Amino acid sequence: xxxxVKIEKMTxxxxxxxxxxxxxxxxxxxxxxxxxxPNGSAKSTFLKLILGLIKPNAGSCQLLGTxxxxxxxxxxxxxxxxxxxxxxxxxPATVEEIVSANLISQMGILKWMTETHKNKLKEALEIVGMxxxxxxxxxxxxxxxxxxxxxxxxxxxxxxxIFMDEPLVGVDFESQEKFYALxxxxxxxxxxxxxxxxxxxxxxxxxTSHIACMGNGKIYVHDSQAFRPEEYLESIYGEKTKIVHxxx
Length: 248
Ligand SMILES: Nc1ncnc2c1ncn2[C@@H]1O[C@H](COP(=O)(O)OP(=O)(O)OP(=O)(O)O)[C@@H](O)[C@H]1O
What we know:
Elements: E1 3-12, E2 20-28, E3 32-36, H1 43-50, E4 58-63, E5 66-67, E6 77-80, H2 84-88, H3 95-100, H4 104-107, H5 115-127, H6 143-155, E7 161-165, H7 173-189, E8 193-197, H8 201-207, E9 210-215, E10 218-223, H9 229-237
């Protein structure tokens, strides 16, 4: 089985306070991981460490079998950071401009779109159900729609894995359902490995294959089916915490 991410003995702190100590984690091709943990437990930091955006104090990370600092096949890696929508609100670009901007690395020196590129753009928008919005301004779409556009932006490069940092913040329940249906399509039909940070412990454990719980500098790994969100929340926040189940 292809190892998409392999982290060994990773330790990291921005200063003297260690956020991760001696962490090991392996993510295999085709899995869907949810990363959960209380505020400040270094979930976003962990994604940045995986992607080599920050350097660990000790330990290593491999992406698709290559040490991250030597990794070059970035088109195989999709990353949707947490603040992507805030950044984007006042930005006067259309959906197709945002999505096709990610094709530039494939376009060669002339930087124009061939039929193949146009087809990739169309296909990516169709997968996320945003083909009718190609000419619309990104800032005028809903949070859920913007989220789908940013997913399409990663899809033009046919990624092997997509990392997402809290993609459901500010997204309503209906869009959340659509989002998870899309994740199922990407993961189960297209075989894309998914890794997403979420604070919604109950919902994410129903949708993913694996859960990584962050806290106290450690990462506890569970098969999603064996994960008990209630017990987890109780261990962090005390007995009074209850999970609110949405009615489907
Ligand atoms: N660039 C930075 N420099 C110094 N400290 C930082 C930096 N980025 C984050 N931190 C601190 O590191 C800790 C972990 O932050 P991080 O954003 O990774 O946590 P998180 O689990 O994603 O939190 P949240 O759920 O609130 O988004 C926090 O205490 C944060 O204040």
